[in-house]
Amino acid sequence: MAQNAAIYKVELSVSDMDRHYYDTHKLTVAKHPSETDERLMVRIVAFALNAHEHLEMTKGLSTDDEPDIWQKSLSGELDVWVALGLPSEKLMRQSCGKADKVVVYPYGGRTAEMWWDKIKNSTSRFENLQVTSFSEKDTTELAKLASRTMKLQVNIQDGEVMVSVGDSIVYVTPLKWKTAA
């Protein structure tokens, strides 16, 4: 019998001093049966880093031709495509052709570094691609914050990210491997 997705209710308050964006998002996040708490929390932090009134979680892992998060214009064009993990060069090429801006968040320590070493030269032509990595230490700590009902506060200043749930605080330092033009 197939397992169903676990539903997480998230109240995400974002204070992004770098972009001057301040808002609270009430999210219902479906966690795919194969998804880890680490990936779930990376997805939520990625949402906070790109927060916008039109940003949405997608079907994610259950759909191959959609990113994890996207932002569409009022006329339906893809403004922002956000993917997690270690996508293939082909998938990044296709994504860059579909959206104005593509952001990839690799994580997983040495595995992510090896992926980037292999793929970085073939991505230099994608001017609308940004690749921002999270350290294994940071994502492991984020996973410990996961619960079915969360009130997260995410503060972003000078590229540093502070994620707090109740009395627990995790500091995340995103590392930009490639910036969009």
From TrEMBL:
Native species: Roseibium limicola
PANTHER family the UniProt entry points to: SUCROSE PHOSPHORYLASE
Name by which UniProt lists this protein: YaeQ family protein
One Pfam family it belongs to: YaeQ
